[in-house]
Write a structure and sequence with these properties.
homodimer; 46% helix; eight-stranded mixed β-sheet; eight-stranded parallel barrel; 34 strands; alpha/beta
């Protein structure tokens, strides 16, 4: 195995597509060298060495030493300078570089090769002793802290003291002799702490630097970054040893960063910053303000022209927008880095679309380049980029799980009904709860954002909020909420009801007070790319929507039907006429508390017109598209109040003793409600609910038919596990529906089907496919049962299962991305078995996974007819469905 | 299809093995006729007619009428009497009879054929007008109520009034003319209510009676009986139309019931009762006391000799103990019924063993005849048979699910710790809880019995109690327990703490006060039969046992090892030294509340010697047999107190603020603890617990090895779902164990394996078999997850799923008998997959199903190496394992 790859003098051993081996930086340097761009000479030590080093007790692979020595000699030869030379020494930078960008996470050593002899050589060659000694002092400081781990503050302190003594504003005001003295001070400190002198031998310096870069791969911040960004499967970091060039040798020098297109808007214009007489670290430090590229054009037209040519060559070569770093040393341009540039959401779409128009890439490539978060980030407001960093640091209260992106500002309110009251008075509120339940949806609906102390990305709060595209942070484990005192606290910081807070759903941070937000904008190129995706994809995309409003939003987002309409949300909220919600709540609660079938029937009779009206609104919005309606699913206790006060209130309203209400609520409570009396089990025990719901659906459909609307209702039973159970329900559903249709004398087609959300249903799918005309995989619950994981509780230990530094058992959260190995096996089995009995069985998915890129691809590949996602994730699904086809075409994978 | 089967005059169309078609009674009558016993003539209408009748809107099959008419003519011919004949009429009884005995559940009509003419004929032939008119009045009364549904009380009232008027003590004191008058009264009443005269036509009477018998199959009490007795799959009842014989024609007549062997002891002696001058219903009514058979022998030696010959013939014919009914009419013996006799638990074993010795049956048949409940009932005390029925009725409070048989008397106590205090003072207590948790095991251990308001047969209370063979009733849904007031109530009846109650775990009834109990006795023939089973079976049988005491009991019951030793019960109770339990509780609670790894480690260090000691006791008891120890399984919140008072106490003991304790307990609570942070997930997050538990196991094993004990520890991880997860734990387990073994310098072999209790583990069993040396199916949890059923909550709707009159979705409770279709498929898949990767993988089951007959047979058939059951169910498993082999041999089914 080759460990070291040389580049320089127009030749490179590596290529641009060797990122895995050379890291992004190394591959870029090799590629730029190959296509003839001016690149400093150097060599890259491969990521495989890092892997070996970390796995072999911090020892390098045996052959590495000789390879490095050989390449170092070659470097000296082509550059024409020697390491440690007292006249004109070779100096190098030693930089990390992994296959995926991890900005600022790993280490860099500059000016390596300086010692007491070579510093003089540098001074002589540049004719600038101040510059040389400054470079030397920087190197010693960097080496001492990064490689040997001496405390940065100690060295910085000495530097600060010196500058104060000299009343120097910046480094250029410090003379050579002072720098020299500081170097001596540093070295004394080094020897005192380390018990040996500072290494003067450049080779020794180099090996120390290489080891330090390798070590930095496992530094806590780097590991955390990889975890947060889901970066897995990399070998480690490469090490780039590159000839130093200096942008700070005078006014004819400088350094800069540029993009081949505008990263904010995507516009095809050369965009970048330049700082004269400076090195890269000065740009980062932000003491001096860089100027735009046109200033470079004015000052150094030749260099600019050369740079613009590099821009064009690199974009053509990489066929994507590039982010480049360059340095000008004494009027000579050096390209230091090129990589695919990060860009704002709007720019993502514009660049992709423009490049297709320009013939640079194909439509398929444009589609493949869009990622789910590019779409997500389009739709949500964000913390304004103008807010000072310092302000954010000061305001920060705590961090939770970023369940739904976006940002929200409002007054903290801890009870859903109070949130509704406040909202009625025109207040903007953020609903803060330990956790939420269907009772809280009214309060959630009026809130700007939702914050919960418990739960993960698929907790009730997250799922509901996601459906509405409402900013939501969950699982703030450090947040202590005191409902009685109406306040929350974290790390000693207390927020009382009515205090302003700001949520940043993009990173899960909670801030005190009102932070300035910026609104989202929808670029026209977004539509272009999504239409291309629609032309390619075969998988249908529907939306999960519970109200007419959601349904309209779903159509807007490109959903061709509703894959999951949950009927229970309607029990608590009249979304078209919120002021009428109380009637519904009372009716459902009365139905539940009822102690006789008659009382229950009376309550159901009152609910029926509400449900009918809701369904009509949805059918109208979905004219011509199928609407899958899931019959009641959650356990009844979720609908009744659990605190004594509200129970008393309810008792009074329905004319029962408070003890009776309390008793009934107690009877309804379950140890494991997820596995309890819910879904179709409720309809087996209370067939009158089935009658009401099916009746309301069919009546609404018939009414709409009269209006000339094309209605395609699909009635869906939840949590089934047995053929006979489903048969009973399907027979009864058809009896009720056919009766109404016959009475009305109107032709109406409808389907009856089932969710597949329990392993037993999946296992016996062939039997279930007899009564069921369609399957819809409820992969939230299927994940819970297949893996034995409660989504509300998993935040207690799942993070450790995902943590690369700890157990690292799973690479993705199974509630976000479908667990292919286990849950996926069940899904495949069920589809295969179901279609063995009913070949034309319609199959879809309506779990949260229907809006996740990888899961959508899986759904396509196992032969589903459609996926259903929350409206705001419909575009992600549309895109993923196209991406799956493109990927499969490339890898020639047949669809099952 | 033939609908009617004739028997009489030494010939029968049916045979004794046609029970499914003819019902038990009809088959018996046919068989007795065939072998030449004196049987009244008659015919049987098949069960298929009942099925047709119930499915076709209460219409008989078209051909039935002609078949019945033909057989009726034949009956008239062979008997030599005619229906409705005014001189010597044919009278018949019309009796139900299903394939499985349902005593008293269905209808019977006697003396059918009597009308105003034929009554005279009967009077003439018997020369006894009083008898004839009494018979007629009985018929009219029976017909009016049973067939036409007139209220029994109305007719009984008239009869009572008559007898009062006449001051008659019994029916024989009422003269013919009074009976005649009563018949007239009855008929008037009939006409008044029904608007038509009482049917005088015997054919019409017959069809009415046949219909009534069919209807009675679906009467509520019959349906309930079948549900309770798990009687399913029958077509319906047959109808036996049989020539009437009269035991009440004088002192030369009589009726009786006898058994071929003593049904209480099983002794081979002729056992029975006889009542002179009486009909069967008089025996049932219990007004006169029957005499033993030797009295019959004395009075009618010829009849007795004939009966004894019938006894011998029938036992030889049926090769089992028979229960026979007979009538003597004017010195002539008639056999009316023979069926396999019910017998006391002790008799079951004696009869089976004796019959093998006598060469009547083979050992295999003896084994097949024993049922699980025969064994169960052997071990448990029962309500004494001497307790008057009336007393039981008065004392009854409510009924729940009979989770563990037996009976218990004690004072009701509502808190586990109070139960312990009371027990210390020498009080006998019954622990009454809404539900139990591991915190309550101390109180459960000292209680005579356990009663809970919630839960099913596999709830915590049931499972723990079953392990101890302790009487337990769960799921008393109508019981309202008020912990604050320390009382329970049901139907307005209140039981306060300290009041005596009695539990009958055999039928789930709770009684107020102290009811007399009787102790169980273990017959020697039990051991004989079980040893035969052991010789035949191939499947290993182990026990679930958590303490040395349990382990000793398990050995006594014939367990060859422990298949499941739950380590968490030890955290709450020192079973050898109960007075030391508090130390353990405190240590485990301190471990959980600990806010640092150090504090947790200190608490674990204190627990370690406790666990080590417990394991040593178990290893000693299991010398030479394997012991599978499951590492900590339940979620931690089950170990900490949930009420403020106890939390305060705990806080004080461990020197923390009560708020800290409360906060930590709140943090531990989960929405769905069954799917929560438990099992191996705890060991992933708290590796120090793994260290303590594995350390304690290995140290105990090493100590025992020094004592010369053969120790075979099998360390088992719970709730695994992923290969990597298990690999991490197995590696760590081996590291800890090997370290200790190496240090000790003692050779010790041990296995490390996993439970398979989540669908994902079963699906990916091939992968899990790489790190796992054995699998043990935890089918309780596997049932919960595969079916999405919480065993603690399932009692809310599962009864309806099992109810034959309602949904009838399942025929058996999946928590009692393994769900073959779903859970069974997962188990088979996992075994197959597991052994595909590790051919010698050891496989067992340790769920509750390991003690269920059908489930044990399944386990054998899918190739498991052993089953593990609670000690008291070990004999059931031993027997079932042999039964499976015998069944398979007969059906030539190969084992997988």
């Amino acid at each position: 195995m080759k460990y070291v790859y040389f580049f320089g003098a127009g030749k490179a051993e590596g290529t641009g597509d060797m990122k895995e081996i050379l890291g992004g930086k190394g591959a870029g340097l090799a590629e730029m060298t190959r296509i003839g761009l001016p690149v400093p000479y150097g060599f890259t030590i491969s990521t495989a060495c890092c892997d070996y080093y970390l796995k072999h007790n911090h020892k390098h692979p045996p052959r590495l030493r000789s390879e490095v020595e050989k390449n170092l000699s070659r470097l000296e030869r082509v550059v024409g300078k020697k390491f440690g030379d007292a006249r004109d020494p070779l100096l190098v930078s030693v930089r990390s570089g992994s296959a995926r960008s991890m900005p600022g996470m790993m280490e860099t050593i500059l000016n390596l090769g300086l010692n007491d002899q070579s510093v003089e050589g540098l001074a002589r060659r540049t004719n600038n002793a101040r510059f040389a000694w400054d470079a030397y002092r920087r190197f010693v400081q960097m080496y001492a802290t990064v490689v040997t781990g001496l405390p940065k503050e100690e060295l910085e302190g000495r530097l600060r003291a010196l500058k104060e003594r000299l009343k120097a504003m910046d480094d250029t005001q410090v003379g050579a002799e002072h720098w020299q003295k500081l170097v001596t001070e540093y070295k004394h400190y080094f020897k005192e702490k380390k018990g040996q002198p500072f290494p003067e031998n450049p080779a020794e310096q180099l090996w120390g630097a290489i080891g330090a870069v390798f070590e930095s791969w496992m530094a806590e911040k780097a590991v955390t970054y990889r975890r947060v960004e889901h970066i897995t499967g990399l070998l480690g970091t490469a090490v780039n040893v590159v000839q130093m060039v200096f942008g700070n040798t005078g006014d004819n020098s400088g350094t800069g960063v540029c993009f081949t297109r505008d990263p904010s808007t995507g516009e095809k214009s050369f965009y970048g910053d330049f700082l004269a007489n400076a090195q890269g670290e000065d740009v980062v430090a932000g003491i001096r303000t860089p100027v735009p590229l046109r200033e470079l054009e004015r000052r150094m037209p030749k260099v600019y022209k050369q740079l613009d040519r590099a821009r064009q060559m690199l974009e053509k070569q990489y066929r994507d927008m590039q982010d480049m770093e360059f340095t000008v040393e004494d009027g000579k341009l050096y390209m230091l880095q090129t990589r695919t540039g990060k860009r704002a959401p709007a720019a993502v779409f514009r660049i992709a679309a423009d490049m297709v128009q320009e013939g640079l890439i194909k439509r398929e490539e444009a589609i493949e380049r869009i990622q789910a978060q590019d779409i997500e980030r389009l739709f949500y407001p964000v913390i304004a980029s103008t807010v000072p960093r310092q302000e954010l640091v000061q305001r920060k209260i705590c961090t939770g799980v970023n369940a739904v992106p976006g940002a929200a500002v409002g007054r903290a309110v801890f009870m859903a009904h109070e949130a509704e009251e406040w909202a009625k008075k025109g207040e903007r509120v953020v609903l803060v709860r330990r956790e939420t339940s269907p009772e809280d949806v009214g309060g959630m609906a009026v809130a700007q954002g939702v914050l919960t102390a418990t739960g993960g990305k698929t907790s009730h709060a997250a799922v509901v909020a996601r459906g509405w595209g409402k900013c939501c942070i969950v699982g703030c484990e450090k947040l202590f909420i005191d409902y009685a005192a109406k306040q929350m606290s974290s790390n000693g910081r207390v927020v009382r009801q009515g205090d302003w807070i700001t949520l940043d759903g993009n990173d899960g941070t909670v801030y005190a007070g009102q932070v300035q937000l910026a609104s989202p904008q929808m670029p026209k190129h977004y539509h272009t790319v999504l239409e291309w995706a629609d032309e390619i994809r075969k998988l249908g995309v529907r939306a999960n929507a519970d109200t007419a409003q959601d349904a309209r939003k779903a159509r807007e987002m490109g959903a061709a039907g509703i894959g999951l309409c949950r009927t229970e949300h309607m029990f608590f909220k009249d979304f078209e006429h919120p002021e009428r919600s109380a009637d519904r709540q009372l009716a459902i609660q009365e139905m539940i508390i009822a102690d006789s079938r008659e009382a229950r029937q009376r309550a159901l009779d009152r609910l029926r017109p509400f449900q009918r009206g809701d369904f009509m609104g949805i059918f109208r919005a979905m004219d011509g598209y199928p609407v899958t309606i899931r019959l009641i699913d959650p356990p009844l206790h979720e609908f009744v109040p659990h605190d004594a006060e509200k129970q008393k209130e309810l008792a009074q309203k329905i004319g029962l003793a408070p003890e009776v209400v309390a008793r009934r609520v107690e009877q309804l409570s379950e140890s494991n409600p997820m596995l309890g009396h819910r879904g179709c089990r409720l309809l087996i025990t209370y067939p009158e609910i089935l009658d009401m719901q099916v009746g309301a659906i069919i009546e609404a459909a018939l009414e709409c038919r009269k209006e000339g609307i094309k209605v395609i209702p699909e009635i869906m039973h939840a949590l089934t596990m047995d053929r006979k159970e489903l048969q009973i329900l399907v027979d009864e559903t058809r009896r009720i529906a056919d009766n109404l249709i016959q009475k009305a004398g109107i032709k109406l087609e409808y389907l009856v089907g089932t969710m597949i959300e329990l392993p037993r249903a999946a296992l016996l799918a062939d039997e279930l496919a007899e009564p069921a005309e369609f399957f819809s995989f409820g992969t939230n619950d299927l994940t819970q049962t297949v893996m034995g994981l409660s989504r509300d509780d998993a935040s207690r230990f799942l993070p450790e299962y995902l943590d690369e530094t700890k157990a690292a058992i799973f690479s993705t959260d199974p509630f976000q991305t479908l667990d292919r190995a286990g849950v996926g096996m069940m899904v495949e089995w069920a589809i295969q078995r179901g279609r063995s009995r009913r070949p034309k069985l319609k199959v879809g998915i309506c779990g949260e996974h229907g809006g996740d890129t990888e899961s959508v691809k899986f759904c396509y590949r196992v032969g589903m007819d459609y996926v259903s996602a929350s409206p705001f994730r419909v575009p992600i699904a549309r895109l993923a469905a196209a991406q799956a086809i493109i990927e499969d075409k490339r890898s020639k994978r047949p669809r099952r």
